[in-house]
Amino acid sequence: MSKFYQSALDFNDTENVVNRFEEILAIPLDSVVQLEVFLQKESELLGQIEEMLTGHYIDFNCYSNSTETKKVFEHDQEVIEPIVKTYSAKLDSAFLGSKALKNLPEERYGYLVKRRKNAEALFREENITLEIEENRLTTAYFEHTGSLTVNWDGEEKTLAQLSPYSENSDREIRKKAMSLSREAFLVKEKPLQEIMSELIEIRQKKATNAGFVNYRDYMFKKYERFDYSPSDCKELAQNIATYVKPLKEKLHKEHQDALGVETYKPWDVSAVLPEQAPLKPFSSTQELIVKSRSVLTSIDDRFGELLHLMDDKKMLDLESRKSKSPGGFCAPLPVSGLSFVFMNHAHTHDDLITLLHEMGHCIHNDLKKDIPLHLYRDTPMESSELASMSMELFTMNQWEQFYSNNEELKRAKRMQLKSIVDFLPAGMVIDQFQHWLYENTMHTVEERNQTFKQLLKAIDSEVADWSEHEEWQETAWLRILHIFEVPFYYVEYVIAQLGALQMYKAYKENPVETLESYKRALTLGSSKGLADVYKTAGIRFDFSAETIRSLMDFIETELKELDQ
């Protein structure tokens, strides 16, 4: 495997890692100048450590069956990360204990102080041991799911490689693809449910140790959700059910009529119409990269240059293959100054969107990389996902580089808008499911599955008929890696999607000004709160009923224009 990240430290020499932290703790903190030297040295060291931890995480996901990458990754989880957590708490304590703290400029450092006070209040040394076990369990999840393959007419395929068949015009082929994929997860249900049960127990212990009634409330503080609350999420779920679910059901019924099927089954939801073939925007990985670079360059030269640099430096792993973790992500490498994109493409339209989405994250990372404070470069997911989801929509008018046929181009744009309507209810189901998991920790596996099914019924479309396949429906959450690896990371997608729709609406009216506002907002990193970041982008951090209703009206209007 190629070395795409820089190793400034020897993680096997833990004494040296500890000494680097001790050197920073030894800095006197009697003046503003000394505090700023402290922050600069801290940011430099944390950046070096993040680069290596991220590089090892990427290696493990790219080669999840490798004993070598697993050994390095587990060493990070069991040895290095506990050191970092312990010393991060010590650094917080030293910084906050300085008498010179009150003299730091409020405009520049006020939000930093607020966040460090929050981190200090949450830290419990006994939770470090629990997090080592938590990491072991999430690694086990990836080992189970990364090894999943099926036999397709004598050929071994990963689950990602089945995705094109879900769109096939032949109904039996669609059913076969869904059956193989869902049954593959059912084979793994028992160990995955056991992992989930253990994770819930460990996470509740962490919350209790930190003085919280439940893990949900603990994670809201951990994620620094200063701008909204659990009750806001419940209200958001209700607003999605009220204003988005009806539109999703309307679109599903229209699709059912167009397919000419009496009963709309789950394997019909992604189907193309009988006279159509699934969209195939690219035939090779290189074609995907070259055309995506052209699309991004047409928006901003630097955006396209980033993809070229990442490709040149082997910072892209895009194809699906056996023994590679599922999913996709963008990971910043702060020392290298670039990002790595990981995904599992199967030549579908969704794969094109995934790369453009992840490039939105890369662009965000590039715009904030010169922020001197490490903590300000670490952005909340609500602004990170705003960057990526907005990029999906900004690029729509450049998709003719993938679709020379005008009808296919219109189909692709329609798919994009419909995918937003499809996602919003599904996203809130995942969010509210996690609220329930950690508010009701003594539940059984059966109650867990049934609650997920009930939330689908309450929030999501009910047009598809799951009869005889209820087990697929109620265990569908097992496929959502976020629930296992990054709990409560999902509502951000919904919030950011609503923000991205606002961005797209503005972009259609004034692309130049909107793009500049977008870049200004992303340049802030996390030096400002979410409301300020969204305001700088020219939109509102708002998921009220009126905002959601008006955005669904906007999507309906856009869909009607595409149908003309």
Automatic annotation (TrEMBL):
Gene3D superfamilies with a match to the protein in the record: 1.10.1370.30
Required cofactor names: Zn(2+)
Entry GO MF terms: hydrolase activity
InterPro entries: Pept_M3A_M3B, Pept_M3A_M3B_dom, Pept_M3B_oligopep-rel
Domain Peptidase M3A/M3B catalytic: 166-551
Keyword set includes Cell division: no
Pfam families from the UniProt entry: Peptidase_M3 (PF01432)
E.C. number(s) listed in UniProt: 3.4.24.-
Keywords tagged on the record: Hydrolase, Metal-binding, Metalloprotease, Protease, Zinc
Protein name in UniProt: Oligoendopeptidase F
Lineage, broadest ranks: Bacteria, Bacillati, Bacillota, Bacilli, Bacillales
Broad class of enzyme this protein falls into: hydrolase
